Every structure is written in structure tokens, then in C-alpha cells.
Amino acid sequence: MRAKRAWVMRTIVVCLVIGGLAVPAYAGKKKREKHADKWPAVDLGAYSVLWIEDFAMTDPKAEERKKVVQVKGAPKRLGDYLQQALDTDLFEQVHRGASADLGAGSLIVRGEITQYKPGSAVGRAMMAGAGSAHLDFVVHLIDGATGRELTSFDAKRTWAWGGAMGMAKGVDDMEQNVAHELALYLRKCKTGSIQ
């Protein structure tokens, strides 16, 4: 009888864990849509070439943060994640790095990381809010031919859940989510489907 009860309890725990992980993943997709829809609508239909520059680290406390290697790599990683998240047929050409000799139909994505705090997975596991991770950023969309800024917007992301869920994710997951949100935003602006 005890063996059967233990098996039932393990099954319930597994279902709760799997269900608990599935719900936030689903909610994340909805949240991405919501974030992309909040950013300013701009017509990108005329742009066929995209340049994604490394984000600039403008967080004044970046050098003081623990996990310095992770902090220093964030500007390049965000650009790389954005390139990976883009639909392959959205732009005829996608380039990474500093933009140079741009002609008509070129769009530059230029970003700044205004706060980057990796936080602590152990701290989040012990108590919600402790060890929270933060990623604040500003994005500029620039016409490559004229250098004119088409739009800019800022956003703030925080991961502060507690327990196993808080420990399971962190700033790297936020970086990837931001890249997916930006890719979704670019697709909506390019196809004219932003609300």
C-alpha cells in the first residue's frame, strides 16, 4: 500500500512540475506578443538589408558585477540571439557587426544595455525576489542610407521567481526572450501586422 501511495505522490509531483513549466513557457509566447505590440509601429516594408550591431553596454555598474565574463559577453550575445531568432526570409540579407557603406534599403538595429544584472540562481531558489536578474535595454532602428533614426524604445525585464522555477531560469533566458521579442517586432513592422 505504501509503495502505491508513494508512486501516486511521485506522479502528482511530476505532473505539477511539468505543468508548472509548461504554463510559463506558453505564457512567455503571449507575453512576447504583448511586448512587441507595445513598441512603436514603424513601416519597415522598404528595407531589404538588416545590420544588427552588437549592443553597447552602458550600465555604469557593469564592471562591478559578479560573473564579469557573462556581463562582458552580453552585448555580442544579444545581437547573435537576435540574428538566430529572425525569420530567414524576412530580409534579403542580414549582417552582424558594425555597419559600413550602407545604401538605400538598409536598416540598422542598434541597442544599448542600460542595466545588466545576472543575479543569483541560488538566491532566487531560496526566496522569491532575492538574487533577481535584470536586463534593461534601449533599441534604435536607423535608416542605413540617411542615418536618420526611425524609432527607438526602451524596456525592462526582471526574473525574480522563487524556488525551483526561479533557479531554473536567469538572465541568459531573458536575453533570448528579448531577442525573440525584437525578432517578432521586426517581423510585425516589416509585414505591417503590428497593432
How far apart are the termini? 58 Å
Please, what is the oligomeric state? single chain
Number of strands: 6
Name the helix and strand elements from N-terminus to C-terminus, one letter apiece: HEEHEEHEEHH
Amount of helix: 40-55%
Q: What's the pLDDT, averaged over the residues?
A: 79
Rg, please? 20 Å
Instruction: Return residue spans where pLDDT drops below 50 for at least 5 consecutive residues.
Output: 11-27
Percent of sequence in beta strands: 15-25%
The class by helix and strand makeup works out as alpha/beta
User: In DSSP terms, counting alpha (H) and pi (I) runs of 4 or more, how many helices?
Assistant: 5
Overall geometric form: globular
Largest sheet properties? 6 strands, mixed
Could you characterize the architecture of this molecule?
By secondary structure, this protein is α/β, with parallel strands linked by helices. 45% of the residues lie in helices and 23% in strands. It contains 5 helices and 6 strands, in the order H-E-E-H-E-E-H-E-E-H-H. It has helices at 2-38, 68-85, 121-126, 163-168, 171-191, and strands spanning 49-52, 56-57, 93-96, 106-117, 133-143, 149-159. Strands 1, 2, 3, 4, 5 and 6 form a 6-stranded mixed β-sheet that branches. Helix 1 (2-38) crosses helix 5 (171-191) and helix 2 (68-85) runs parallel beside helix 5. It is globular and about 65 Å long.
Topology readout:
Blueprint: H1 2-38, E1 49-52, E2 56-57, H2 68-85, E3 93-96, E4 106-117, H3 121-126, E5 133-143, E6 149-159, H4 163-168, H5 171-191
Helix pairs in contact: 1-5, 2-5
